[in-house]
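Customer escalation, tier 2.

The customer says the design service returned an amino acid string that "doesn't look like it belongs to this structure." They asked us to rerun it and document both sides in this ticket. The original C-alpha coordinates are below, unchanged.
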Protein backbone atom coordinates (compact mmCIF):
# COMPACT_ATOMS: atom_id res chain seq x y z
CA UNK A 1 0.00 0.00 0.00
CA UNK A 2 1.40 3.39 -1.02
CA UNK A 3 1.34 6.56 1.06
CA UNK A 4 -1.30 7.96 -1.28
CA UNK A 5 -3.63 5.12 -0.35
CA UNK A 6 -3.37 6.02 3.35
CA UNK A 7 -4.07 9.74 2.98
CA UNK A 8 -7.45 11.08 4.06
CA UNK A 9 -9.62 12.09 1.13
CA UNK A 10 -10.29 15.76 0.60
CA UNK A 11 -13.95 16.24 1.54
CA UNK A 12 -14.95 19.71 0.38
CA UNK A 13 -18.74 19.46 0.57
CA UNK A 14 -18.96 17.17 3.60
CA UNK A 15 -16.80 19.28 5.93
CA UNK A 16 -17.93 22.25 8.02
CA UNK A 17 -16.63 25.62 6.85
CA UNK A 18 -18.02 29.04 6.09
CA UNK A 19 -15.30 30.10 3.67
CA UNK A 20 -13.29 27.79 1.43
CA UNK A 21 -10.25 29.30 -0.26
CA UNK A 22 -8.97 27.27 -3.21
CA UNK A 23 -5.42 27.87 -4.46
CA UNK A 24 -5.27 26.47 -7.98
CA UNK A 25 -2.44 23.94 -8.44
CA UNK A 26 -1.01 24.32 -4.91
CA UNK A 27 1.03 21.21 -4.19
CA UNK A 28 1.33 20.19 -0.56
CA UNK A 29 5.09 20.22 -0.04
CA UNK A 30 5.67 23.78 -1.25
CA UNK A 31 2.63 25.04 0.66
CA UNK A 32 3.77 23.31 3.86
CA UNK A 33 7.22 24.88 3.66
CA UNK A 34 6.06 28.50 3.46
CA UNK A 35 2.45 28.86 4.65
CA UNK A 36 3.35 29.79 8.24
CA UNK A 37 4.87 33.03 6.98
CA UNK A 38 1.31 34.07 6.10
CA UNK A 39 -1.27 31.98 8.00
CA UNK A 40 -1.78 30.17 11.29
CA UNK A 41 -3.78 27.01 11.59
CA UNK A 42 -3.92 23.23 11.60
CA UNK A 43 -2.48 21.78 8.39
CA UNK A 44 -3.37 18.33 7.08
CA UNK A 45 -2.18 16.58 3.94
CA UNK A 46 -5.17 15.24 2.00
CA UNK A 47 -5.71 13.46 -1.29
CA UNK A 48 -7.53 15.40 -3.97
CA UNK A 49 -10.05 13.42 -6.02
CA UNK A 50 -8.57 14.85 -9.23
CA UNK A 51 -5.24 15.82 -10.73
CA UNK A 52 -6.63 18.73 -12.80
CA UNK A 53 -9.48 21.20 -12.31
CA UNK A 54 -12.10 19.56 -14.59
CA UNK A 55 -11.64 16.21 -12.84
CA UNK A 56 -11.59 17.79 -9.36
CA UNK A 57 -14.77 19.77 -9.98
CA UNK A 58 -16.58 16.79 -11.49
CA UNK A 59 -15.76 14.51 -8.57
CA UNK A 60 -16.18 17.15 -5.84
CA UNK A 61 -19.48 18.82 -6.68
CA UNK A 62 -21.81 15.92 -7.45
CA UNK A 63 -25.02 17.04 -5.75
CA UNK A 64 -26.87 20.33 -5.41
CA UNK A 65 -24.88 22.80 -3.35
CA UNK A 66 -25.95 26.15 -1.95
CA UNK A 67 -22.64 27.87 -2.58
CA UNK A 68 -21.49 31.19 -3.89
CA UNK A 69 -18.42 30.37 -5.98
CA UNK A 70 -16.04 33.16 -7.01
CA UNK A 71 -14.13 31.48 -9.82
CA UNK A 72 -10.94 32.73 -11.43
CA UNK A 73 -10.71 29.42 -13.30
CA UNK A 74 -12.74 29.22 -16.56
CA UNK A 75 -13.58 25.55 -16.07
CA UNK A 76 -15.92 26.49 -13.21
CA UNK A 77 -18.24 28.97 -14.88
CA UNK A 78 -21.85 30.13 -15.24
CA UNK A 79 -22.14 29.28 -18.95
CA UNK A 80 -24.31 26.22 -18.33
CA UNK A 81 -22.45 24.06 -20.86
CA UNK A 82 -20.99 20.61 -20.05
CA UNK A 83 -17.21 20.37 -19.98
CA UNK A 84 -17.14 17.78 -22.74
CA UNK A 85 -18.83 20.23 -25.14
CA UNK A 86 -16.12 22.84 -24.69
CA UNK A 87 -12.84 22.70 -26.57
CA UNK A 88 -10.68 22.88 -23.44
CA UNK A 89 -12.76 20.39 -21.48
CA UNK A 90 -13.61 17.95 -24.24
CA UNK A 91 -10.42 15.94 -23.77
CA UNK A 92 -11.58 15.02 -20.28
CA UNK A 93 -14.84 13.49 -21.49
CA UNK A 94 -16.64 14.75 -18.37
CA UNK A 95 -20.27 15.73 -18.83
CA UNK A 96 -20.19 17.85 -15.65
CA UNK A 97 -21.84 21.26 -15.78
CA UNK A 98 -21.05 23.74 -13.00
CA UNK A 99 -24.46 25.39 -12.98
CA UNK A 100 -26.20 22.05 -12.35
CA UNK A 101 -24.39 21.64 -9.04
CA UNK A 102 -23.39 25.08 -7.73
CA UNK A 103 -26.07 27.60 -6.84
CA UNK A 104 -24.27 30.87 -7.66
CA UNK A 105 -21.13 31.24 -9.78
CA UNK A 106 -19.33 34.54 -10.28
CA UNK A 107 -17.13 34.50 -13.38
CA UNK A 108 -14.03 36.29 -12.14
CA UNK A 109 -12.20 34.77 -15.12
CA UNK A 110 -14.28 37.21 -17.21
CA UNK A 111 -14.95 40.12 -14.88
CA UNK A 112 -11.42 40.49 -13.49
CA UNK A 113 -9.32 39.21 -16.38
CA UNK A 114 -6.01 41.06 -16.89
CA UNK A 115 -5.32 40.88 -20.62
CA UNK A 116 -1.68 41.95 -20.28
CA UNK A 117 -0.88 39.19 -17.80
CA UNK A 118 -3.24 36.60 -19.22
CA UNK A 119 -4.74 35.68 -15.87
CA UNK A 120 -6.74 36.95 -12.92
CA UNK A 121 -4.37 38.41 -10.35
CA UNK A 122 -4.59 37.44 -6.65
CA UNK A 123 -5.33 41.05 -5.72
CA UNK A 124 -8.33 41.15 -8.06
CA UNK A 125 -9.75 38.01 -6.47
CA UNK A 126 -9.36 39.47 -2.98
CA UNK A 127 -11.07 42.72 -3.98
CA UNK A 128 -13.95 40.82 -5.56
CA UNK A 129 -14.36 38.73 -2.40
CA UNK A 130 -14.49 41.92 -0.34
CA UNK A 131 -17.25 43.31 -2.55
CA UNK A 132 -19.35 40.18 -2.17
CA UNK A 133 -18.84 40.17 1.57
CA UNK A 134 -20.17 43.71 1.70
CA UNK A 135 -23.09 42.97 -0.63
CA UNK A 136 -24.09 39.74 1.09
CA UNK A 137 -24.52 36.23 -0.33
CA UNK A 138 -26.41 33.00 0.36
CA UNK A 139 -24.84 29.84 1.74
CA UNK A 140 -21.15 29.17 1.98
CA UNK A 141 -18.55 31.13 0.03
CA UNK A 142 -15.80 29.61 -2.12
CA UNK A 143 -12.99 31.91 -3.29
CA UNK A 144 -10.94 30.28 -6.07
CA UNK A 145 -7.60 31.99 -6.73
CA UNK A 146 -5.91 31.12 -10.02
CA UNK A 147 -2.40 31.14 -8.52
CA UNK A 148 0.01 29.41 -8.03
CA UNK A 149 -1.15 28.04 -11.41
CA UNK A 150 0.82 29.45 -14.33
CA UNK A 151 1.37 32.03 -15.71
CA UNK A 152 4.10 33.00 -13.32
CA UNK A 153 3.01 36.59 -12.93
CA UNK A 154 6.42 38.08 -12.33
CA UNK A 155 8.09 36.12 -15.11
CA UNK A 156 5.73 35.86 -18.08
CA UNK A 157 2.26 36.14 -19.56
CA UNK A 158 -0.50 33.56 -19.63
CA UNK A 159 -0.42 32.48 -23.25
CA UNK A 160 -1.96 29.12 -22.44
CA UNK A 161 -4.57 30.63 -20.11
CA UNK A 162 -5.46 33.14 -22.84
CA UNK A 163 -6.12 30.24 -25.19
CA UNK A 164 -8.27 28.51 -22.58
CA UNK A 165 -10.22 31.69 -21.83
CA UNK A 166 -10.70 32.39 -25.53
CA UNK A 167 -12.27 28.96 -25.84
CA UNK A 168 -14.90 29.92 -23.24
CA UNK A 169 -15.61 33.45 -24.52
CA UNK A 170 -18.43 33.96 -27.02
CA UNK A 171 -19.47 30.32 -26.93
CA UNK A 172 -21.80 29.58 -29.87
CA UNK A 173 -25.17 27.95 -29.30
CA UNK A 174 -23.79 24.59 -30.33
CA UNK A 175 -21.58 24.65 -27.24
CA UNK A 176 -18.40 24.09 -29.23
CA UNK A 177 -15.97 26.77 -28.15
CA UNK A 178 -13.87 28.77 -30.54
CA UNK A 179 -10.35 27.69 -31.36
CA UNK A 180 -9.16 31.28 -31.32
CA UNK A 181 -5.58 31.69 -30.18
CA UNK A 182 -4.71 35.25 -29.09
CA UNK A 183 -1.02 34.62 -29.83
CA UNK A 184 -1.22 34.02 -33.57
CA UNK A 185 2.40 33.09 -34.31
CA UNK A 186 2.71 31.03 -31.14
CA UNK A 187 -0.64 29.43 -31.87
CA UNK A 188 0.45 28.28 -35.30
CA UNK A 189 3.64 26.86 -33.83
CA UNK A 190 1.83 25.00 -31.08
CA UNK A 191 -0.79 23.60 -33.45
CA UNK A 192 2.06 22.28 -35.60
CA UNK A 193 4.31 20.93 -32.86
CA UNK A 194 1.84 19.56 -30.29
CA UNK A 195 0.45 16.72 -32.46
CA UNK A 196 4.01 15.65 -33.26
CA UNK A 197 5.05 15.57 -29.60
CA UNK A 198 1.83 14.06 -28.27
CA UNK A 199 1.78 13.60 -24.49
CA UNK A 200 5.53 13.17 -24.22
CA UNK A 201 7.57 14.67 -21.40
CA UNK A 202 9.07 17.11 -23.90
CA UNK A 203 5.60 18.33 -24.88
CA UNK A 204 4.64 18.81 -21.25
CA UNK A 205 7.80 20.74 -20.50
CA UNK A 206 7.25 22.92 -23.55
CA UNK A 207 3.80 23.73 -22.21
CA UNK A 208 5.40 25.33 -19.15
CA UNK A 209 8.23 27.09 -20.95
CA UNK A 210 6.01 28.94 -23.42
CA UNK A 211 4.51 30.85 -20.49
CA UNK A 212 7.82 32.58 -19.77
CA UNK A 213 9.18 35.88 -21.03
CA UNK A 214 12.38 35.91 -23.04
CA UNK A 215 14.14 37.49 -20.06
CA UNK A 216 13.76 34.19 -18.21
CA UNK A 217 16.31 32.56 -20.52
CA UNK A 218 19.15 33.66 -18.27
CA UNK A 219 17.57 32.01 -15.24
CA UNK A 220 16.85 28.84 -17.20
CA UNK A 221 20.45 28.56 -18.37
CA UNK A 222 22.02 29.32 -15.00
CA UNK A 223 19.55 27.54 -12.74
CA UNK A 224 18.22 24.77 -14.94
CA UNK A 225 14.63 24.28 -16.06
CA UNK A 226 13.31 22.39 -13.03
CA UNK A 227 14.82 24.63 -10.33
CA UNK A 228 13.87 27.80 -12.19
CA UNK A 229 10.26 26.74 -12.68
CA UNK A 230 10.01 25.70 -9.03
CA UNK A 231 11.30 29.12 -7.99
CA UNK A 232 8.80 30.90 -10.22
CA UNK A 233 6.02 28.66 -8.95
CA UNK A 234 6.85 29.46 -5.34
CA UNK A 235 6.78 33.15 -6.23
CA UNK A 236 3.24 32.72 -7.54
CA UNK A 237 2.21 30.87 -4.39
CA UNK A 238 3.62 33.63 -2.22
CA UNK A 239 1.66 36.25 -4.16
CA UNK A 240 -1.52 34.27 -3.56
CA UNK A 241 -0.82 33.61 0.13
CA UNK A 242 -0.15 37.30 0.76
CA UNK A 243 -3.63 38.09 -0.59
CA UNK A 244 -5.22 35.22 1.31
CA UNK A 245 -3.67 36.59 4.49
CA UNK A 246 -5.38 39.94 3.86
CA UNK A 247 -8.72 38.32 3.10
CA UNK A 248 -8.71 35.94 6.05
CA UNK A 249 -8.19 38.86 8.43
CA UNK A 250 -11.60 40.18 7.34
CA UNK A 251 -13.54 36.90 7.58
CA UNK A 252 -15.71 35.94 10.52
CA UNK A 253 -16.30 32.21 10.56
CA UNK A 254 -14.65 28.88 9.81
CA UNK A 255 -12.01 29.25 7.07
CA UNK A 256 -10.30 26.43 5.18
CA UNK A 257 -7.51 26.90 2.64
CA UNK A 258 -6.97 24.05 0.18
CA UNK A 259 -6.21 23.30 -3.49
CA UNK A 260 -7.94 21.57 -6.36
CA UNK A 261 -4.76 19.73 -7.38
CA UNK A 262 -0.98 20.14 -7.39
CA UNK A 263 1.72 20.71 -9.99
CA UNK A 264 4.49 18.43 -11.29
CA UNK A 265 8.04 19.40 -12.20
CA UNK A 266 9.32 16.27 -13.89
CA UNK A 267 8.41 13.71 -11.23
CA UNK A 268 7.82 10.35 -12.93
CA UNK A 269 8.19 12.16 -16.26
CA UNK A 270 5.22 14.44 -15.63
CA UNK A 271 5.16 18.23 -15.99
CA UNK A 272 2.26 20.62 -15.26
CA UNK A 273 -0.94 18.71 -14.38
CA UNK A 274 -3.16 16.37 -16.35
CA UNK A 275 -6.39 14.53 -15.59
CA UNK A 276 -6.26 11.08 -14.00
CA UNK A 277 -2.54 11.26 -13.25
CA UNK A 278 -2.37 10.09 -9.65
CA UNK A 279 1.14 10.90 -8.49
CA UNK A 280 1.94 12.69 -5.18
CA UNK A 281 2.81 16.12 -6.65
CA UNK A 282 -0.60 16.28 -8.33
CA UNK A 283 -3.00 14.84 -5.76
CA UNK A 284 -1.34 15.62 -2.41
CA UNK A 285 -2.84 18.98 -1.44
CA UNK A 286 -3.10 21.08 1.73
CA UNK A 287 -6.13 21.31 3.99
CA UNK A 288 -5.47 24.19 6.35
CA UNK A 289 -8.11 25.03 8.95
CA UNK A 290 -7.21 28.61 9.72
CA UNK A 291 -7.10 29.84 13.29
Amino acid sequence: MSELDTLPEQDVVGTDWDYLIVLDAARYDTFERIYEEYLDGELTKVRSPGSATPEWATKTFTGDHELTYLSANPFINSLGIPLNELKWGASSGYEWTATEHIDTIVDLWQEEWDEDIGAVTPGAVTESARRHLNEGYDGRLVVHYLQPHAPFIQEGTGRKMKRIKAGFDDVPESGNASETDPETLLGRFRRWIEPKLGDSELAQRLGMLVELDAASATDLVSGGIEDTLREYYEGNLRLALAEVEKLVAELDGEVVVTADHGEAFGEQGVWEHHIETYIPPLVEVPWLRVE
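Tier 2 assessment: The sequence is consistent with the input. DSSP finds eleven helices and nine strands in the chain. The radius of gyration is 18 Å. Sent an explanation to the customer and offered a walkthrough call.
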